[in-house]
Design brief:
85 residues, alpha+beta
């Protein structure tokens, strides 16, 4: 994930620190059992540039179509109140 973030950051050495910030950020889990999805909505970060990088990371993670093994729900990541892809 750090290598993905480095593509979006002006200072590539900030990637790991940004990941730590993302991991410490609260999320809102939003299950949709009818569509078999679990949206993980991250709260906004401290800087607009970090939000942009986190949004990019969410987009890249969504391409993988990861399924939660315990629930068999497709994981969808998003930042703030952005639209569900």
């Amino acid at each position: 994930m750090a290598s993905l973030l480095r593509d979006k950051l002006s200072r590539t050495d900030d990637a790991r620190a940004l990941l730590r910030q993302i991991y410490d950020t609260e999320v809102d889990p939003i299950p949709d059992l009818d569509n078999k999805t679990l949206t993980v909505r991250l709260h906004h970060l401290t800087q607009a540039a970090h939000d942009e990088a986190a949004r990019y990371l969410c987009e890249q993670r969504n391409v993988t179509t990861t399924v939660s093994p315990d629930t068999e729900l497709k994981l969808i990541y998003q930042l703030g109140a952005s639209q569900i892809p």
